[in-house]
Amino acid sequence: MQTLRTPDDRFIGLPDFDYQPQFCDLDDDDGGTLRVAWVQDGPEDADPILMLHGEPSWSYLYRKMIPILVEAGHRVICPDLVGFGRSDKPTQAQDHTYARHVEWMRALAFDVLDLQRVTLVGQDWGGLIGLRLLAENPDRFSRVVVANTGLPTGDIPMPEIWWRFREAIQTAPTIDVGWFVQSGCRKPMGEAVRAGYDAPFPDDSYCVGPRTMPSLIPTTPEDPAAAANRSAWAALCASDKPMLVAFSDGDPITGAMAPIFQREMRGARGRAHPVIHDAGHFLQEDAGEELARHIVEFLRG
């Protein structure tokens, strides 16, 4: 597997994100290894909060939330998905599969970090991957927070706006990642913050992950990932793991999933679920502090 690695100097001076990265080498499922990165903060002996980002962002997305969760006494771990952030970036689209991305995060969380009693926080692809981890490794988790995400099986059509996003990011001559993140927010980002989202991608050769991920989402019942996601749905619906559904009020891509999670997931029933107002798809950027406070309250309960 051919990969690229973003130079370290691209990450110098990022606003509000001076966490020192940690790295490990994982089996790439192709005879080699991949370097995967994460940042963490908080007491080593505290139960972990595993926060997974989505497409086309990276762990920088959680910079507003980490201090609030740490101040409340929690250990926070934010990996970069393969192809994003400081993690290695496979250069061929066929190297990215849904199953591989689930396995890479499983290996990091459980083989390398040996996380137990995990609270999962998943947004966008962070939910698509994280909910599979939860369904397939339930003994490792204690709670889950879903935020502007889903678990598609290909049995229900994706919204038209998602198809437009998929076409745009796959066909653009070059990808301006900061622009794509800004387009998924309600509030304007400053130039330095937008540059932070661009940092992992010096040029378009590094952008195979962002270009490819939309094509991995099951859009037909016969998709290679559809059966595994259906099994995960069944396991999650039957699970009594406490679930907080914390969606924004301004996400046309995943917004319809909030009432489905609340209705179908046993662990979500009978709970007051917050709505994050004046926030778009990337609610961590628009209202990260508010989302973090809801998570703190959820964990106290």
TrEMBL record:
Descriptive protein name: Haloalkane dehalogenase
GO molecular function: catalytic activity
Domain of life: Bacteria
SUPFAM superfamilies tied to this protein: alpha/beta-Hydrolases
Domain AB hydrolase-1 span(s) in chain numbering: 48-153
UniProt cross-references to InterPro entries, sorted A to Z: AB_hydrolase_1, AB_hydrolase_fold, Carboxylesterase_BioH, Epox_hydrolase-like
Any Pfam family: Abhydrolase_1
